[in-house]
Amino acid sequence: MSTASRGARVLLEVQDLAKHYRVRGARLVRAVDGVSFEIERGSTLALVGESGCGKTTTGRALLRLVEPTRGRALFAPEPGAPPVDLFGLSQRELRRWRRDLQVVFQDPFGSLNPRMTVASAVGEGLRVHGLARGAELEARVAELLDRVGLRPEHGSRYPHEFSGGQRQRIGIARALALAPKLVVCDEAVSALDVSIRAQILNLLAELQRDLGLAYLFIAHDLAVVRHLAQRVAVMYLGRIVESGPAAPLFESPLHPYTRALLAAIPRARPGPRSGSRALPGEVPSPADPPAGCHFHPRCPLAEARCRESYPALRDVGGGREVACHLVEP
Amino acid sequence: MKGVPLLEVRGLVTTFATDEGVARAVDGLDLSLEAGETLGLVGESGCGKSVAALSVLRLVAEPPGRIEQGRVLLRGEDLFAAGAARLAEVRGGEIAMVFQEPMTALNPVFTIENQVVEAIRAHTRLSRGAARARALELLAEVGIPDPDECARRYPHHLSGGMRQRVMIAMAVSCNPRVLIADEPTTALDVTIQAQILELLARLQREQGLAVLLITHDLGVVAEAAQRVAVMYAGKLVETAPARALFERPRHPYTIGLLRSLPELARPGERLPTIPGSVPSAARYPGGCRFRTRCPLASARCAAAEPPLEPVDGAAEHRAACFHLEEALGL
């Protein structure tokens, strides 16, 4: 593919992102250990995995809420213009680019200032960036509230007066204020009840369609991910073990960990299941990951070579990649 | 004729004093549980399922809570009429409980061994040495790989899954008849959740335990429960054998809840939703409490509360709705 058409398609390209922490002076924790992925304009990439897999740290590094240890994040909000490396910018330079890169967190209450009315919280970005004032700002905020399904009079209230679902709508309105190209959704629907979650998922899909938004959707709930994402990357102990288009990944997962993860989801359909679906053991500490393939101690298929070397993430065709010695190309 | 159920809740009403007034968190709840079965009590946040569980053992903080009415019968014995000594015997003895976050239920300054031994000695006459041996046996039984090592540790040394195993070991240490499990796997990762659900199923099989499983997760219920009771706004709206509930739900709330699950929709498709949100407990509407969000609501639903009645004449499948026939067309 030519560089030009690639540039028109790819919004963000993350290369070899790592975030290492030194704990108690000595041990090095590789929370994220060399992760690469791309997000296309207007599409959704989901990062999935269990606690400690590094998905949240990846999102935070991208937003520079934590400083990455190494890697590049080539961000091209304007299709024609050359990309900028988000990790190479000073915090000051970053501000300009942050307009195009916003975030929605899991706990909308924790991310809203309790003393700020909803209207001032939603309009904060516009004010700070000097994009709107006075009547124009008011009109813009009213439009944003309407866009996420809130009424104009909600603007004069405070966050505690709202239910969890409505607070998440406020969080989304706030993220949309600067017309971003990419929104990082960090467990954005995880705290919501089932009936409210469906409302917010519909809203996210509608906004993507209407505004051409791209999402980096960080989540542990695989049913939600399957519903929303075009592409999925599965993480285990700081690395991507499998990635690809959502439909084939869910229908025929290749990595033994992806298979185990999918098999473990309880389904809202009663009836007997064949045999045990429980993967043995627990995720080891990222401070002391097993040698070779990090998954080998829990893997039902592990062989000698799995204990010796970490399998590289290989292209297996159809836009899919997998890091497993036992998957034939 | 059927004998007395193992555990029976009749007409339970638990209220809370709130800033907005008195909230009827649980309002006239009836449940029954037989030995060896799992009853799933499901509903969204604030529906009263956890308050109901705590009320069974009179563990609701009073004030602000208050058990206003109702009875809880353990093999016919009224626990609300029992004295403090008898109640202490039942709690952790015949009826044990497991909570969502084992970290808050375990004491951070004592070792695991200490706490399991205490749990055993609270209800038996075992010597310290014998209780210690039993503790190690229990830790092994709940699938802890190295019980000796685990026994010496403090709760914060253990992972969430291991802590929940310890809680389950303590819960089953006195051979309870009933286990109340309140969101036991909600804080756990999905692969660990699968392990804990398998563990609970095995203990139930081996010990003939009756389990009251409280959860918001319809998938967990489908997997683990034989019967399901759905709560909305403090009331039971539908109860049925698990298969019937998931395959032929009849209450408009149950139908809406199941439809809004992304796993049952086609990827990318707009999800059917239940409009609005659950009203606050101090401001439940009169009549049917779901009517403000229900597609079938009529004047009748505002005028009176629908009773829980058999669906199509089946005694084991009941729903509280005036429009059960129309609900077939939803």
- Poorly predicted segments of chain A: none
> What gap, in angstroms, lies between the N and C termini of chain A?
22 Å
Helical run tally of chain A: 11
Indicate the mean pLDDT of chain B: 93
Please give the largest β-sheet of chain A. 8 strands, mixed
Biggest sheet of chain B, in brief? 8 strands, mixed
- The SSE string of chain A, one letter per element, is HEEEHEEHEHHHEHEHEEHHHEE
Report on this model:
Chain A is of the alpha/beta class and 329 residues long. Helices cover 32% and strands 23% of the residues of chain A. In chain A, strands 6-7-8-3-9-10-12-11 form an 8-stranded mixed β-sheet, sandwiched between helices. Chain A starts with a helix and ends in a 7-residue tail after the last strand. Chain B has 13 helices and 12 strands. Chain B has helices spanning 49-56, 84-90, 102-105, 112-123, 128-141, 147-151, 160-172, 190-207, 218-224, 242-247, 252-259, 299-303, 324-327; strands spanning 7-18, 21-33, 38-42, 65-74, 77-78, 95-98, 178-182, 210-215, 227-232, 235-241, 309-311, 314-319. In chain B, helix 5 (128-141) packs across helix 7 (160-172). The relative contact order of chain B is 0.14.
